[in-house]
Amino acid sequence: MAGKELDSNFYIFLPKVLTTDPVADVEHGSRNSCYAGERLCFFLIAQFRGNKREDANFENWQKRLLRLCTSVSVSSIELMTRKDDAHAGGFITCWPVGSSKMEGEDVDLRKKIEPRITHRGDIIYPLDVRLNSLPALTRRMRLSVNVWTPELHFFHETENRTDIDFRHYLVDHDPDDLIEESKNAWRCIVNATLPVITPPTLRCKYFQVAGKHFLCIEVINILGKSVTLNEVDVRTSYDVDIENGKNMIHHFSHSKQDFKPRFSCLDVFPVTTSGNKASTFPVLLRPWEHYAFLFRIIYHENQMALNKQLEVVLKGSIKWDVETLKECFQTINTSYSLPVFIVRRSSVSVRASCQSSVGKGKRFQVKYTVTNTERDDGNVSLVWSPVNNASLKTLRNAPIMHSLVCLQPKVKIGCCPSGSSLTVNVEFLAVQEGLHEVGKFMKCKWHGESDQEDFSGSRSERQNTSPSGFTTVSHSCQIFVTGIS
């Protein structure tokens, strides 16, 4: 078989349109690239080398090749260079870790189709292979088709096995027949190098607003053709590997201990805003267009009581397709590795309560409750600081500092023991009508027992955390000022 000259030429063809008629698919043209994770359907086409296609040799050639056996494999030959780069606005590039095809309507589309003969006498072998085994950063891949005659089928199936008794095989088969069959036996490998189109780029940014944790996901279409986003999701790494966890629980099913996931104290939810049209999928992204999706990270304080901070390992994923994949009824799910974020729970929280409404020109009091969840005692002070939030307007479109007058802008409460709460009443004067915020603008300043520095206004306006890393959060509370005095 070695050095045997074949009477056939083989080449690989990627159809642009995929139906149940391979002959018609070839006439519609080909495509020259693929996508990591897709189910790649292609044709292996065999052509007769002889000049005369009307004689008996051509008919015998067709009969022999219609019985060929094939197997398909793929391998990555070039990877995209990965570099951890940050971008303007604090966004960080998230790199893909894997792509796979979503199970869908194409299950019945590519049923086993027998080889077809074209009007020229060429033979088309419909084949397919899943590309989810390729590394996510693959830029070029090698598609290999192993072709062999039926005489070698037994040896092909057993070449990687060590439990085959060839002595019994030779006893059951006439050696003369085996030698005669081997005269026409052959095997070859057909290779094709294909570019792999990278998935959309994903960037993320973690930030906090008023003690709440948010994650902004930005999807950028770099494919050079329109991309349809069917879903954008963010989950903890535990949720991604939940099936492995279930298997482990099943393995230790006799144990009575409860299985607690590492990130059971975290939830990630998408945030829908009035201007976020992408909250309804699918979303169409044209070349180089991008869109941002907002997620909120919520931690449960009762489950983080003993942890001041938590390292959060998240996984992002998008379900997407392009026109080529739509014609094949395929959707790709690409997973991304997000940077590790540190979620810190609030050391000290401030909650405000007051009457619902007050007349213009009247004085009113707001009760502030300061809760210390730290293990250490500390001195606590409250500072009314609407200057840093002057851009926030009331319902009457006036800055908050011109709407309310705090008659006690600096209040030193004193020592707040660990695990306890202190309350204090602060008096205000209602100056202008409208709905005004009195909770978020009352900032809490934390001073450890060793901190004897005088509590100055300039210092209070600069710091929201103590040198030891304690953090504070002020919750919202609003009052409505009416025109009735």
UniProtKB/TrEMBL annotation:
Biased composition (Polar residues): 455-472
Xref: Pfam families: TRAPP14_C, TRAPP14_N
GO CC terms: TRAPPII protein complex
Domain TRAPP14 N-terminal: 110-231
GO molecular function: alpha-tubulin binding
Domain of life from the UniProt record: Eukaryota
Any single biological process term in GO: cilium assembly
Stretches of the chain forming a coiled coil according to its record: none
Disordered: region residues: 451-472
Domain TRAPP14 C-terminal: 351-469
Stored InterPro entries: TRAPP14_C, TRAPP14_N, TRAPPC14
Protein name: Uncharacterized protein
Organism, as annotated: Pocillopora meandrina
